[in-house]
Known about the structure:
Keywords: Membrane, Transmembrane, Transmembrane helix. This protein has helices at about 25-55, 60-90, 95-115, 115-130, 135-160, 195-200, 200-210; strands at about 5, 15, 20, 170-175, 180-185, 215-220, 225-235. The chain is of the alpha+beta class. The protein has 3 domains: about 5-85, no CATH class; about 95-130, no CATH class; about 135-235, Threonyl-tRNA Synthetase, Chain A, domain 2 (2-Layer Sandwich). A 4-stranded antiparallel β-sheet has the order 4-5-7-6. The longest helix has about 35 residues, at about 60-90. The protein is extended, with a radius of gyration of 38 Å. The relative contact order is 0.05.
Amino acid sequence: xxxxxQRSPFGWSNRGGQVTVIExxxxxxxxxxxxxxFWVTLGVxxxxxxxxxxxxxHPILGGLxxxxxxxxxxxxxFALIxxxxxxxxFWHWLPEILLGLATVYGWTTLMQSTPLWGSLLIVALxxxxxxxxxxxxRRVMAWAWCLIVRHRLRxxxxxxxxxxxxxSLPLILLAKPTPAGERVWVWLxxxxxxxxxxxxxxxxxxxxxxxxxxxxxxxxGRKYAAFIRLDITRREPLAHTxxxxxxxxxxxxxxxxxxxxxGMPPVGLDLPDVPDVTVIASPDAxxxxxPRNPTTAASPNGFDPSDYA
Length: 309
C-alpha cells in the first residue's frame, strides 16, 4: 500500500506524509460557497452601509466606509464557511479535548500546589473512589459509552449513509445515557431524510457498528423534520428480576384467622337480618304487529304519528 492511499482509523487520509483532515472535494465545495457568500455580503452590506453613512458624511467617505464594512463582514463569513468542516471535526472531539485539557492543566496545577505524595494521594482518591463504588462506576461508564457512540455514528455516516451532492454528513449533536443504552440527537443536512436511515437495513448496520442490540430512529420533535433521535439499546432493563419490598412491610404478629389483606374490606357481604326474596321476572307483554304500509284517513300519504310515540 502506497503512502498516497493510506488512511488512518479516524477517517483522515495520509498523502505523502501530510495528514488531510478534510477531503479535497469537500474543501473545494465549501471554498466555492464561501467565495459566493463573500461577494454577496460585500455587495449587500457595502451598499446599505454606504447609503446610511452618506447621510452623515461625504458620499465618497460613506462609500469607502461601506466597502470596508462589507469586506470585513464578508471575510468573516468566508472564514467561517471555509473552516466549518474543521470546526465540525473539533465539535465531534470537543468532549475529549476538554477532558484532556482539564487533565493536563489540573495535574500541572496540582503538582505546583501540593507535594508529590499529596498529588498522588488526590489522584488515587479521584480515580479509585469512583472505580470502587458500583453506582458511580456504572454512571461513568454510561457517559463513556456516549462518547464512543458519537464517534461510531460518525464513522457509520461517512461509510454507508447517503450524503447530499456537497458531501455534507449529518451533524451529531448531544448524547446522554438511558436505562437501556444511549440516546443521540442528530441534525440531518439538506439531501437526507428520516426515510434514508430506515431503508435497506441501515438500522441493523448502525446497531452492529455501535456494538448494540438494536437501534431505533424517530423524529425528535414535530417542528423540524431534520431533527431526529437515535435510541441505542444495549440491555433490557425490564427483563431483570426486581425484588419487591412489599413483604418487608407485613407485620409479624398477625393472628392465624386474620384475612389475607387486613387493609381491604371483605369481598362478600353476609347480612342475616335481610331475608332472601326470590324475584320472579314477569314475561313481557306481546307486542302488536303493525301493517307494513299503514294508511289512515287523517294522513293520506301513509304517515302514522304513532310510529314515533
